[in-house]
């Protein structure tokens, strides 16, 4: 059962619709349905603003990202891109290149913020997820899809190598270099069944409604647990993905030398001894 309420006014955006899906669970929808949620400049900028706010918002513990209308997203807005990428600013090649580099770094930030936000982010994909959409979902912690979903690393088809995260994160997500190369070089569509079997998504639902119900259920489950535990786990999973086991173990030891001193540990242990669920424990905000 889905219940929605309006999110706080600070989440008022033009291209993103943000609602309070459940207690401590925010729903962020890419919201340009008539343009198939193509990512225009406003959307790239609002992603940064939205996730920076969520990161600081102690009332929120988990985020679900989905697309409004027919599909998740058609990727970058090709009309918007034409201005910025095809006509870089600058008096000479060096200055144009310098400007272009900064522009690309800025685009990257739109999805880096998802990773930097310590709250888990669940991507819920229906219909097409193209180009920039793959950049987005690979920066999320958990990916779900509906049976009609399809995925396409489309960038070579528009004459470019993907530069906003897919080439860096997709190999880590599916752990199959051959399949990644195939998807990237051919730009072929990957359907929902294959996305499930290769590990791009962890669950497949019959339709969008069932998927969103499943996503909110999962998000509520996560939100009921200690935010010190959950958010610490996210930050350490991401750190460990990018470092050796030795460095990861060192990092968690340093992390937990303070975080194990949380009240959440005592409260949770006591609840476990009393055969209560974490849902019954009133954890402080984080
Ligand atoms: C530094 C840059 C970093 C980022 C790089 C990112 C790269 C990428 O994302 S590469 C991928 C680019 N995307 C595409 O090539 C997809 C193009 N669109 C389509 O193939 C189809 O539109 C699609 C299969 C997604 C949907 O088909 P459908 O029949 O359902 O809808 P349409 O009638 O085609 O489209 C409806 C309106 O949406 C507009 N639109 C769709 N995609 C885009 C887009 N990517 N950019 C801008 N606008 C898009 C389309 O023009 C229609 O608008 P209107 O005519 O005003 O109704």
TrEMBL record:
Pfam families: ECH_1. Keywords: Acetylation, Fatty acid metabolism, Isomerase, Lipid metabolism, Peroxisome. GO terms for cellular component: mitochondrion; peroxisome. It is found in: Peroxisome. Its main location: other. Gene3D superfamilies: 2-enoyl-CoA Hydratase, Chain A, domain 1 (3.90.226.10), Lyase 2-enoyl-coa Hydratase, Chain A, domain 2 (1.10.12.10). GO terms for biological process: fatty acid beta-oxidation. Pathway: Lipid metabolism; fatty acid beta-oxidation. InterPro entries: ClpP/crotonase-like_dom_sf (IPR029045), Ech1-like (IPR045002), Enoyl-CoA_hyd/isom_CS (IPR018376), Enoyl-CoA_hydra/iso (IPR001753), Enoyl-CoA_hydra_C (IPR014748). GO terms for molecular function: delta(3,5)-delta(2,4)-dienoyl-CoA isomerase activity. It comes from the Eukaryota. SUPFAM superfamilies: ClpP/crotonase (SSF52096). It catalyses: (3E,5Z)-octadienoyl-CoA = (2E,4E)-octadienoyl-CoA; (3E,5Z,8Z,11Z,14Z)-eicosapentaenoyl-CoA = (2E,4E,8Z,11Z,14Z)-eicosapentaenoyl-CoA. Belongs to the enoyl-CoA hydratase/isomerase family. Isomerization of 3-trans,5-cis-dienoyl-CoA to 2-trans,4-trans-dienoyl-CoA. This is Delta(3,5)-Delta(2,4)-dienoyl-CoA isomerase, mitochondrial. It comes from Scyliorhinus torazame (Cloudy catshark).
